[in-house]
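User: Can you predict the 3D structure of ABC transporter permease? Sequence below.
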Amino acid sequence: MYRSFVGNCLIREMEFRWHFILYSLINLIWMVLALVTFVFIYGHVSLIGSWTLPQMLLLTATFYFFDRVFDTLFEINFSRLNHLVNQGDLDLVLTKPVSGQFLVSLRYFSFASLFGAISMLGLIIWLIARYFWPLAPGELLIYALLLCFGLVIIYSWWFSTLLLVFWLGNIDNINQLFRPIYEVVRIPIDITGPILKPLLTFVIPLAFVATVPVQVFTRGANYYMLLYGLVAAAASLWLSHRLWRFALRHYTSASS
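Assistant: Sure. Here are the predicted structure tokens for ABC transporter permease:
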């Protein structure tokens, strides 16, 4: 089923290829500017906190890789949930013999965002090979696992904030409600201070977006954080599903 979704989205992207090309280029320019900004900053300082320029570039590349993967899979769908609920189209989704949460979360696939993810992945590979090689055994795998845990965590928290639409009605750009919190993790979590650091690591574990994965290369693998990431991802996903089920019990069809 998901393969057919992706295929349909690819056909749609090719019908609007100039939109695809321009969106991809704008995304790439935006990410390059963010990286160049740190190059200029490190022209005047040697460290930000305990982070060197190569470490900060890897953190930034990891964040934008994560962000573009998230946009590829989820953000394009999150922007449609408000319409689904308030125009009654969710009724049709709920009649399908498939999880409603799966359909509203993964129905569409953004190939334009995928281009940005591939670009950042190439930069990540180059940075690791240039500044962090050789690696200890298993570090690449742990880095990838932590990113996967982070993706599940961010999806779950972000999706949960969207469910407010079931009670508050038509809210434009509700899919952007969580973004200001999420954007904090573009910087190293360990320089955010004694309050935000534990909050963003253990309570709302956004540190798994970039900081914790990159620390595998800068400080070595932390197996306690790997285990905590697994638990946090599983708990966050379970909670988001429970909230989805709770929201559906309060759903009144807009078409009725």
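Residues 212 and 219 are 10 Å apart (CA to CA). The chain has a mean pLDDT of 90.
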